[in-house]
Design brief:
207 residues, alpha/beta, Rossmann fold, 9 helices, 9 strands, 34% helix, 15% strand, globular
Length: 207
């Protein structure tokens, strides 16, 4: 099972509750988020009908007020910065916004702290992947990885991410971490995103 961001939180909830996965790849999630960087992201969420009142996609999807998306023009700051992804990538991301049910957010939020996470009971092998410059998840102070590794997720290298995150999966049959160089939260838009693909493929083959 593979998830990204909110989807990774749902993947953890499934794995912790049912123990029925051969393995799970979680991208864009950690247990010590940068609260200062996360607050504007949550602040940019609006009901789809308010964010895109004239959007044919919003109308065709028929989503009620319980579905949220990002306010137009905020995805670069929310999911890319301080990574410098190309303008075409940013435009594509803005044009292809998605929606999230508001009711799922509280449950996933519990997966983002060491006290409430259910990752401690997960038994399946885990591959965790994070962008090196993910301002929401990593200890980024002014665009630089913080040295306060005890209090923030250290995304400076794959080895550092392993040290930061492995402790939250004590029952997992294995734990592997990979950092995508230079990538932000929406890491598949980054120039080094292809570095992650063979890692995931080879890890899956080894299950």
């Amino acid at each position: 099972m593979i998830g990204h961001s909110l989807g990774s939180g749902l993947t953890q909830i499934e794995a912790a509750g049912y123990h029925d996965l051969d393995g799970m790849i979680i991208t864009g999630i950690s247990h010590l988020i940068n609260a200062g960087a996360a607050a504007p992201v949550f602040g940019s969420l609006l009901p789809v009908r308010l964010a895109h009142p004239r959007s044919a996609k919003a109308r065709d999807w028929g989503l009620d007020a319980g579905y949220l998306t990002t306010r137009p023009g905020t995805r670069d700051a929310d999911f890319h910065q301080p990574s410098q992804d190309g303008p075409d990538a940013i435009r594509y991301d803005e044009d292809n916004w998605d929606a999230v049910p508001a009711a799922e957010v509280p449950g996933v939020a519990l997966e983002l702290t060491p006290v409430t996470t259910r990752s401690r009971v997960i038994t399946t092998p885990v591959l965790s992947v994070i962008g090196q410059r993910d301002a929401v998840l990593c200890g980024l102070l002014g665009g630089t990885v913080s040295t306060l590794a005890t209090f923030v997720t250290d995304c400076s290298s794959s080895a550092a991410l392993t040290r930061s995150e492995q402790r939250y999966y004590p029952k997992a049959r294995s734990f592997t971490a990979f950092v995508v160089p230079g990538a932000g939260h929406s890491m598949t838009f980054a120039a080094h995103a292809p570095d992650y693909y063979p890692v995931a493929i080879n890890w899956t083959k080894g299950l």
